[in-house]
Amino acid sequence: MTTTRNDILDELVEVLKSRRGGDPGASYVASLYARGANKILEKVGEEAVEVILAGKDADARGTGGRDEALIGEVADLWFHSLVLLVHLNQEPRWVLEELASRFGTSGHVEKASRGQPDGGTS
Terminal CA-to-CA distance of the chain, rounded, Å? Predict the structure, then answer.
């Protein structure tokens, strides 16, 4: 049986939820939860910067193939973003639902609906 991307996400979210209230000495995720939202946000920011740097390096190399450094950094960013969502009692599937709702909508139209100028950063 092949595990789908959604299965992996669901399994990961269940693990993250199970770490709430866990022993911070035994689990990295439990240690993040114990340190609170500010520490988790710090990690998300750190990972975002690492994605930017890895992206710049990948662009400079211009290989066009799979860039392991970039893929690894994006995985770290997604992971820490999931930790944040779970910590704040937000369902990661809601992010997927939001992305799905944007299919078929021009990015320009979608940004305008949120009151963002065309050159916005989010």
Answer: 37
- The stretch 17-23 carries a mean pLDDT of 96
* pLDDT given at position 1: 47
Decide: residue 27, CB within 10 A, 0-12 exposed, 13-18 middle, 19+ buried. middle
Helix, strand, coil percentages, rounded to 5, for the chain: 70, 0, 30
Tokens of 122: 């989010």
Give me the half-sphere count of Cα atoms (radius 13 Å) on the Cβ side of residue 57: 13
Asked if 6 and 93 count as a contact pair (C-beta separation under 8 A), the reply is: no
- Is-contact 86 20, C-beta < 8 A? yes
Residue 54 and residue 70 in contact, taking contact as beta carbons nearer than 8 Å: yes
For tokens 């078929």, what's the residue?
Answer: 104
